[in-house]
Amino acid sequence: MKATIYHNPRCSKSREALAILKDAGAEVEVIEYLKTPPSRATLADLYQRAGMTAREGLRIAEDAAKPLKGADDETILDAMAANPILIERPLVVTERGVRLGRPPEKVREIL
Predict the structure, then answer these.
(1) What is the per-residue burial (b if ≥16 Cβ within 10 Å, else e) of 61-96?
(2) Using alpha carbons only, what angle is made at residue 52 by residues 76 and 27, rounded to the nearest 5 degrees?
(3) Taking the CB of residue 41, how many other CB atoms lie within 10 A of it?
(4) What are the residue numbers of the active site?
(5) What per-residue confidence (pLDDT) applies to 81?
(6) What does the pLDDT read at residue 78?
(7) Is 110:91 a contact under the CB 8 Å cutoff?
(8) Is 53 helix (H, G, I), strand (E, B) or coil?
(9) CA–CA distance from 22 to each of 32, 43, 96 (Å)?
(10) pLDDT of residue 25
(11) 100 beta partners
(12) CB atoms < 10 A from the CB of 98, how many?
C-alpha cells in the first residue's frame, strides 16, 4: 500500500503516525509540509476527502490562528496556504481515504 504523509518531524503525533504507516508496511511518501507546503487547492481537496472542514484542520494552538477565530473556511484555506504552520498535522493519504492523524491511531482507518 502507498501512503503520503504531510509531516512535521518535530511533532510527536506526526512521528507516531509515520511509525504506524511504516509498521503496517506502507510505502510512504513523506512531505515535510513546512518546507514544501501543499497548495490551497490541494488542502481543500484533502479536507473534502477527509470529510472535514478547513476549520477542523486549523492548528488553533498557533498565534497566527487567533485572527481566524471567526473566519470562514475560504479565508482559513487562504491563511493556511500563505502560512503552512497553521495546518494541523499529520494529514495522511492512502487509496482508502484521507485522515488527520490526531490521534495517530486514526490513520489505521485508511490502511
Answers:
(1) eeeebeebeebeeeebbbbbbeebebbbbbbbbbee
(2) 105
(3) 10
(4) 11
(5) 97
(6) 98
(7) no
(8) coil
(9) 16, 24, 16
(10) 97
(11) 91
(12) 20
List per-block mean pLDDT (blocks of 10 residues) for the chain, which spans 111 residues. 97 97 98 97 98 97 95 98 97 98 97 96
Q: Please report, in angstroms and rounded to a whole number, the separation of the first and last CA atoms in the chain.
A: 8
Distances (CA, A) of 45 to 12, 17, 70: 25, 21, 22
DSSP one-letter code for 37: P
Euclidean distance between CA atoms 92 and 70, whole angstroms: 27
Question: Residues 65, 40: contact at Cβ < 8 Å?
Answer: no
Global pTM reads 0.94
Q: How far apart are CA 34 and CA 87, in angstroms?
A: 9
Relative to beta strand 2-7, strand 91-94 is: antiparallel
